[in-house]
Design a protein that fits this description.
This protein is mostly beta strands. It is 4% helix and 67% strand. The chain has 2 helices and 23 strands. It has an 18-stranded antiparallel barrel. It starts with a strand and ends in a 6-residue tail after the last helix. The relative contact order is 0.11.
C-alpha cells in the first residue's frame, strides 16, 4: 500500500498475505459459550487455544452461578507415532458433571497387521475427584480396540465385527470391561441401507466414580438409514436383554442451505415411557461468526457457542497469495 501526494509516492508499506485454513481457524480461534443446566445454574465460559512451539495448548475458564469458577489447562503433542494429552483442572463428563482431574492420556498409533485388521490402544493415568459424589481416587487404565475384516455373507449382505476391552485400576478396586459386537448391512440403493446389529458389554469389578461407569448391555438393533445431500436420517428399534428394555432410536440431520444446519438425536425407552436422551442442535454460519445452540431435554441443559471462522465470502474474494 502506498500513500501518494499528487503524483509523488510519500510512504510505502509492505504487504503480507496469509491464506487462512478454515479447519485450523475453527480450532485455533477463541470461542465463548453461555448456557444453563440444573447442576451449574447459568454459566459463561471461554475456550482460548494457543501454541507453545509444536505443542497445542488450550486454556478454559467458566463461571457458574450455582457452582463458582472452573479453570482447565490442556497440552497436546505428537509422541512416538501417537498423541499425548495432559489436562489439569475441572473437566465435564458426558452428563455435564464436573470432575477435578490431573490426567495424562496417550493414544497410540493404529497397527494394521493384515488387510482389514486393525489394533489400537490407549493409556490413561491420573488423579480424580468427582464433585457430585465426593469420590476421590487415582486411576490407571489401558484400553484396546480390535477392528476385524468385514465379512461378505453373499449377495449384498456384509458384516462388520468388533471387539474391545478396558482395564482400570483404582486405589481400592479394579474394573474390567469387555465388549464385542457385529453389524450386518444390506444396501437398498445408492443412498439407503438396512442394518441389524448386536452389542454386548459386561463389567467385572466396580468404579468409585459416575463419569467412567460402564453400561452393561446385550442389545439387538434393527434399523434403516438414508442420506441425501441436504437431509439424512437413521431410525432403529432396539431391545436390550440386560434390563429388558425396548427403545426407539432416531437421528436426523438437515442442511437446508444459507448456512443453516440442524441435528437431532432421540432415544425413547418404550418400557419406561420416557426419553433417555433427546438432544437438539441448531447452527448458522453468519459471515465470519458461527453460532450454534444445543438443548439436552432430559438433563435440562442448554448452551450457545460462538466461534469466529473465516468468512466464505473472504475466501472466495481473496486470491491466492503471490509466490
Amino acid at each position: 500500500a502506498t500513500l501518494w501526494v499528487g503524483r509523488t509516492p510519500v510512504l510505502t508499506l509492505p504487504r503480507y498475505e496469509v491464506r487462512i485454513d478454515p479447519e485450523r481457524a475453527r480450532r485455533d480461534f477463541p470461542s465463548p459459550q453461555v448456557g444453563y443446566d440444573t447442576l451449574s445454574g447459568y454459566w459463561i465460559a471461554l475456550r482460548y487455544p494457543y501454541r507453545l512451539g509444536d505443542v497445542e495448548a488450550e486454556a478454559y475458564g467458566r463461571y457458574n452461578t450455582a457452582a463458582g469458577f472452573e479453570l482447565r489447562g490442556t497440552l497436546r503433542a505428537s509422541l512416538a507415532g501417537g498423541r499425548a494429552e495432559l489436562t489439569a483442572g475441572t473437566v465435564r463428563d458426558s452428563e455435564n458433571r464436573p470432575v477435578e482431574a490431573v490426567e495424562l492420556r496417550y493414544s497410540g498409533p493404529v497397527w494394521t497387521p493384515a488387510p482389514g485388521l486393525s489394533l489400537s490402544a490407549g493409556l490413561v493415568a491420573g488423579q480424580y475427584r468427582e464433585r457430585v459424589t465426593g469420590a476421590e481416587s487415582p486411576k490407571a487404565e489401558v484400553s484396546v480396540g480390535l477392528g476385524l475384516p468385514r465379512l461378505q455373507l453373499g449377495g449384498p449382505w456384509s458384516a462388520a465385527p468388533f471387539a474391545s476391552f478396558r482395564y482400570s485400576v483404582y486405589r481400592d478396586r479394579t474394573l474390567f470391561v469387555p465388549a464385542v459386537g457385529a453389524s450386518v448391512d444390506v444396501p437398498l440403493d445408492a443412498r439407503s441401507s438396512a442394518y441389524l446389529s448386536y452389542a454386548w458389554t459386561e463389567a467385572y469389578g466396580s468404579t468409585p466414580f459416575l463419569f467412567d461407569a460402564p453400561t452393561r448391555q446385550s442389545a439387538v438393533t434393527v434399523g434403516y438409514r438414508r442420506s441425501d445431500e441436504a437431509f439424512s436420517w437413521d431410525l432403529g428399534v432396539q431391545y436390550d436383554a440386560t434390563p429388558q428394555h425396548l427403545r426407539v432410536l432416531a437421528t436426523v440431520e438437515a442442511r437446508p442451505g444459507d448456512g443453516w444446519r440442524l441435528w437431532t438425536f432421540a432415544k425413547y425407552n418404550v418400557t419406561l415411557s420416557s426419553f433417555e436422551e433427546l438432544e437438539v442442535r441448531a447452527g448458522k454460519l453468519c459471515d465470519c461468526l458461527d453460532v450454534s445452540v444445543t438443548v439436552r431435554v432430559p438433563q435440562q441443559q442448554l448452551w450457545v457457542t460462538l466461534s469466529v471462522v473465516p468468512s466464505p465470502r473472504v475466501r472466495e474474494a481473496v486470491p491466492e497469495p503471490l509466490r
